[in-house]
TrEMBL record:
Cofactor(s) needed for function: Mg(2+)
InterPro entries: Isoprenoid_synthase_dom_sf, Polyprenyl_synt, Polyprenyl_synt_CS
CDD domains: Trans_IPPS_HT
Keyword annotations: Chloroplast, Isoprene biosynthesis, Magnesium, Metal-binding, Plastid, Transferase
BP terms from Gene Ontology: isoprenoid biosynthetic process; quinone biosynthetic process
Entry protein name: Prenyl transferase
Organism encoding this protein: Polysiphonia urceolata
GO molecular function terms noted in the UniProt entry: metal ion binding; prenyltransferase activity
Superkingdom of the organism of origin: Eukaryota
Homology family: Belongs to the FPP/GGPP synthase family.
């Protein structure tokens, strides 16, 4: 996704990230740098930079808002390092994950280092309310991982519980960082809350689409092994919807996909239902809620680029 109006800002962001993650220990630096060299969609900083422009009368992005976009990407990357260890994922964005190249201990330390770096830069924004808002993300990450860990291979999980877990693991980061971006320049609680909700719905839609791609995608497109969520016992929207019509899935879940063909069989069963479409409809509901916020209250300006971000999320599975 290329947004022309912030192309220069994103290039500068990539350059700044290399400086911000510098470490004296070469192993630690190499481990932390691994994911940044692998690239990524930069969807989170793109969203933050776009909403910063949208709410400013002169379409300007402050230095603090640019730095917050960088901080958010570091936090996101740190969470990926830890996620790959927990999920036993050996590839990320098409390249070997940090723990696969080094080991789990180095990967944990690299993730901790990135969290520490983001905290230091966050403190230097000298805005206590922003610090409080962004700090909540770290707590939510932990809550989401615990919830997911407790519900592995649990075929009683509901869509509501899945959405709650998805908020903690993914949507909280976008929601809180969107709110914090507004807090840096606008002292209006209603506007701050509008963009919190915008970020929340975008984040939930993004996670649901990722979970659909885990079922229908191929490894080359995902940058990781397709069906990994199922294999790890992480039951997502397409499977949860399919459980009501394919009883065979209960057996596969109860035996924790222990046989080689079990994951493929589960994917085939899900594809025989309308569950993927139902999951896509759920993602679209959240996209429309996000769009409504922008169109309803911020249609007095050119909001086409930020709306294109919304549309592109579900287009990934078309």
């Amino acid at each position: 996704m290329v947004i022309k109006s912030i192309e220069n800002e994103l290039k500068q962001l990539d350059q700044n990230l290399q400086t911000m993650i510098a470490a004296e220990n070469p192993i630690l630096y190499s481990a932390a740098e691994q994911l940044f060299h692998a690239g990524g969609k930069r969807i989170r900083p793109t969203i933050l930079l776009m909403i910063a422009k949208l709410v400013d009368d002169n379409n300007r992005i402050s230095t603090e808002q640019k730095r917050l976009a960088e901080i958010t990407e570091i936090i996101h990357t740190a969470s990926l390092v830890h996620d790959d260890i927990i999920d036993n994922c050996d590839t990320r964005r098409g390249v070997n994950s940090v723990h696969a190249i080094f080991n789990n201990k180095i990967a944990v330390l690299a993730g901790d280092f990135l969290f520490a770096q983001s905290s230091w830069y966050l403190a230097n924004l000298n805005n206590l309310n922003v610090v409080k808002t962004i700090s909540k993300i770290i707590t939510d990450f932990a809550e989401g991982e615990v919830q997911q860990g407790l519900r592995l291979f649990d075929n009683s999980i509901s869509i509501e519980e899945y959405i709650e877990k998805s908020f903690y693991k993914t949507a909280s980061l976008i929601a809180c960082s969107c709110k914090a971006t507004i807090m840096l320049t606008i002292d209006n609680r209603n506007t701050q809350n509008d963009f919190y909700l915008y970020g929340k719905h975008i984040g939930l839609a993004f996670q649901i689409v990722d979970d659909i791609l885990d079922i229908i995608g191929v490894s080359e497109n995902l940058g990781k092994i397709a069906g990994l969520d199922l294999k790890n016992g992480n039951l997502t929207a397409p499977l949860i919807f399919a459980l009501s019509v394919k009883n065979e899935l209960y057996k596969l879940i109860n035996q924790e996909f222990q046989f080689t063909q079990d994951t493929k069989k589960a994917v085939d069963l899900i594809k025989q239902t309308n569950s993927i479409q139902k999951a896509k409809d759920l993602a679209e509901e959240h996209i429309q809620l996000a769009i409504h916020i922008i169109k309803d209250k911020y249609n007095y300006k050119d909001n086409s680029e930020i709306l294109s971000i919304c549309y592109n999320i579900t287009n990934r599975i078309n």
